[in-house]
Amino acid sequence: MSAVPRSEKQGKADKPSSRFRRMLDRLSSSQEDLESEELQEDAQASGCTRISECTDRQIVKVTGTLRTVTLRPRAGVPALEAELFDGTAPLDVVWLGRRSIVGIEPGRRLIASGRIAMSHGRRVLFNPKYELRPFGKE
Q1: What is the pTM of this model?
Q2: C-alpha distances in angstroms, 74 versus 78, 97, 99, 128?
Q3: What percentage of residues in the chain have a pLDDT greater than 70?
Q4: Which residues in the chain come in under a pLDDT of 70?
Q5: β-pair type (90-96, 79-85)
Q6: What sign does the CA torsion over 46, 52, 53, 59 have?
Q7: Are the C-beta atoms of residues 80 and 71 closer than 8 Å to each other?
């Protein structure tokens, strides 16, 4: 048990940490954690919705980095599928009737908008409007 009252502990957690502490946290964080934090900051700065906050049938605008891009036919129709990650959760982006799209490749950042659907417990965005982010922003 701690001798410090619970209310004082909560107050310390709310206080901004020192510059040294933030630097130490960054040095001890994994590369994946740092990339996730950067993606979350980018989503917030661009005014997009966090993927983890998206619900079924909601119209959203999200941003993130494409992790994977695959060609996977759906009901005999070609479909280009990509996994978009914004640091909070993954989102499957699917372009039906497309075998490839110039610029859609793993590692590329983009902004996508459309209506979220839930499929097998995963968030999916079918045929979204999208905007490729320039390489200079990465």
Answers
A1: 0.72
A2: 6, 9, 12, 17
A3: 79
A4: 1-17, 22-29, 34, 136-138
A5: antiparallel
A6: positive
A7: yes
